[in-house]
Amino acid sequence: MELISILLLVLPLLGFLTIGLLSKQMNRNLSGRLASAVIFVNLVFSAILFGFVASSNSTIEIPLFDWIKFADISIPFALTIDRLSALMLMIINGVGLLIHIYSIGYMKEDEGVNRFFAYLNLFIFFMLILVLSSNYLMLFIGWEGVGLCSYLLIGFWFKDHANNDAAKKAFIINRIGDLGFLLGIFLLYSTFKTLSISEIAAKASLMPSGDMTLFFITFCLFIGATGKSAQIPLFTWLPDAMAGPTPVSALIHAATMVTAGIYLIARSSVLFVLSPVTMNIILVVGATTALVGGLIAIYQNDIKKILAYSTVSQLGFLFMALGLGSFSGAMFHLTTHAFFKALLFLEAGSVIHALSGEQDIRNMGGLRKKIPFTFALFIIGTIAISGIPPFAGFFSKEVILTAAYEHGLGMGIIATVISLMTTIYMFRLLFVVFFKSESKALKANHHVHESPKVMTYPMAVLAILSMVAGFVQLPKLFSETQGFDNFLTPIFEKSNSLVAASEHGLDVQTEWLVFLVPLFIIAALIFISYKRFVTEKELTEPTGLAKVLAGKFYFDEIYAFLIVKPLGFISDLFREFVDQTIINGLVNSVGNGTLFAGKRLRRLQTGNVGFYLTIMVLSVIAILFFNIIL
Amino acid sequence: METTVAQIQTIPLQYYILFCSALFSIGVIGVLAKRNALVIFMSVELMLNSANLLLTAFSAYRNDPAGQIFVFFIMVVAAAEVAIGLALLVVVYRSTKTIDINALDRLKW
To answer: How near does any CA of chain A get to the CA of B45, in Å?
Structure first.
């Protein structure tokens, strides 16, 4: 088992080094297959570990080596594999493998394809470190590493400056969150004198609820999660990150990296349940983000931006779940979301590939006849994300909605509204791209073709997963199949036991209402969207309130005005005044002074011997004088 | 020997010091104010000899022969220096046809 875990971690690193160092010489077709083979082996190993942990309910601890060790500080490099890590392993390697295979087809014509697969493998490596680590500092290494890889991959087509700006934006906003995470780590160490996750959980469970130190720790950790998982106010990087290739968006921004924040909070569940204030903050921030993301998505016109804001909204929804204390519900929705969001992004990539680079949905339409396979899978993805039974999204959303209603009617309604907004923007996307009559731009494009099998087969696998993955946990209404909850019970039982005995569950009538009413509203929304988008002629320009939504609530503009401009001003001030005038002036004046002194002093060289003799005599007199008198 | 020394000691030491200072100053002025290189050499010799005289006087007054031995050293150095200096002067004369020191002004800035 130990060997498997170590290999699991090391293989992607070796893949990165091999493909990366040999990227100039390597055959273009080899790099993709090699990278995918590495992840396939990883997947096999993950399955073995998963089976082991599932059947034996034990935790594998593998200390690797002593990393930091001096005085009384000892932070080892160690792996922990329990059910939560095993679940994340399956998601990362499974979805990662499918995306690697898809990328073989998508990036085939690109000249930097070797570099791409090297970066993808590196990303998987860092994500695995993040998930398998047994202490917070090692987790932070993985955290930073995936941030780095997302920078490299978003700015993959680096010749276009806009991509570089997007990559920088992602990295810098991430960094702001990382400051919070670091502060949290410092606080953790000073409070518990250790950074090992399990030891901290054990020590923290003895502390009282509402403890101030725990509040600050969890708040700082939450700020870190905000940056990584794109919550308000640090979410503006995610839509811009769509500048990268679509497989990158699928892997990093839908399935793995953005879920790192949620994983962090789930891992530290003991800390979080003991600070109800932080849980409330998480709940409010999550709900706001979900609402804002959903509202913006309704008015976007770029296929990938719609999906990006959808991700922001779904992540807000996941944070709501965490804030409500439904940790396993959050992990369940994280899993199903990974499947259908990756599916949707890959399909978007397929559409873009089919139209040779077109991303604006106003230039699409009627594609259901031209790319039928993608169309079929897109329907599956849309239904899954909208939470329509029996596809996976419904079951995972049900868990969260139930938790919301248990918290209170108001929160339940907000959660329902958020779910319904998903229906609106996703079906808008579906109808405009596939059902609407062809736009003029599309008619001119004769080269619309279906994607190759290497791209459609991974999508098909994800579609199947999106359809069936929900059945592991049915609503309590219908059956006792609570597979997910049961699976993760050992992980969360400590934190669940610390919460006051959970309030009464919902009574049966409310549960039926929660189940049925959204379905009717969804059906109505689908009907209204159909009429609005398929039958009417053109997508109109938004006006009034819609304009604010279409302008993404002007977040970017506000940030530019409040933060970027003053920083630019200060930077210019320092450049002009401090650097150019003062420091350059000082350095130049040294040189100028030397020249000036030289000009004056060389007049001593008169060439006149008599003058030299005079100076000699005067010097001797002066020396004698100063020696004798002084 | 003692009678010579005793006779020398009848003249107060200050006279010797004053006299040698005067000689030295004349030498210095000669070095600074004259343009003829040979005259400058002579003035340097004059300075050296004034030092010799003073050393001898002190040696007599203090009955210490070390002063006079030092005078020998100074004479040797003076002789060597004159030899080299005159050789240099001959070379300079051959190239500039003059022994005016103001002719050597090419090392100006």
So the answer is: 15
